[in-house]
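Students often ask why we bother encoding 3D structure as a string. The short answer is that it lets us treat folding as translation between two languages. Here is a chain of 299 residues written in the first language.
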Amino acid sequence: MNGSAVFETRFPNLTLRSRGKVRDIYDLGDSLLIVATDRISAFDVVMPTPIPDKGKILTQVSAFWFDFFKDLVPNHLIETDATRFPDVCRPYEKDLAGRSMWVRKAEPLPVECIVRGYLVGSGWKDYQKTGAVCGIRLPEGLQLAQQLPEPIFTPSTKAEKGAHDENISFDQMARLIGKDLAEKVRDLTLAIYQKGAAHARERGIILADTKLEFGLLDGQLILIDEVLTPDSSRFWPADRYQVGSNPESFDKQYLRDYLVASGWKDGRPAPELPDEVVANTRARYLEALERLTGKGLEG
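And here it is in the second language, the structure alphabet:
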């Protein structure tokens, strides 16, 4: 697994629970080990070329935000220092360093919690067709990348592997998890976005939208998975933001734009990424880390 980029983790003494687009999750009994690889996906497709250090960047960004929001909502994080992981992880300490989180087991809610503060991406396409985003009516005459009058909560289902998430209404979410819990999740998602967006803006970054996940641990609602990373959020440099055009970004949008310009279509094998695209993508992720946390890459 050693090398400049990590595509897949292999730890023979650990039980692999699941392998997602980016993260490999190992079952440690009453806890989990989440290992962020350097894989990158776009349009729900994993690219064959990894982005060096991406997993470390994601882990460091999430750890920062888990601590930042700890007074707002508890979370599943136990430890990110691999030297403090359970003994069964000890043989892999070097490979786990910097890119792993030891976390509590929780029962994930069957929804993804999305908040949008700006009109962009699929929301912009939806608005152009219907005047609404995920069924939420918006004022007429809004432009691409314009800030919304107030952030909106647009949940989705968690798709099975290989499928796409589906947007659902708040009422549908309430039927899935119960009205009281749905209201608590919605309010927390909006509060996290607003607090995170304010911090990001102080660092010269606009947080356009983000996706969060929650779980239940002994009946308590907690924040899980990743938090406000370049994989789960749209980050724009505030000094280059302009309403009416697609802003530059510190996230996967650069890769998406490259793929569209290359002529690649979803459904065809994903292309190997040129060195320049890999380097530019890594640089964007790294700048997001440095600006948001005030620290460089560790580990």
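Translate back mentally: The first helix runs from residue 54 to 68. Keep this in mind for the problem set.
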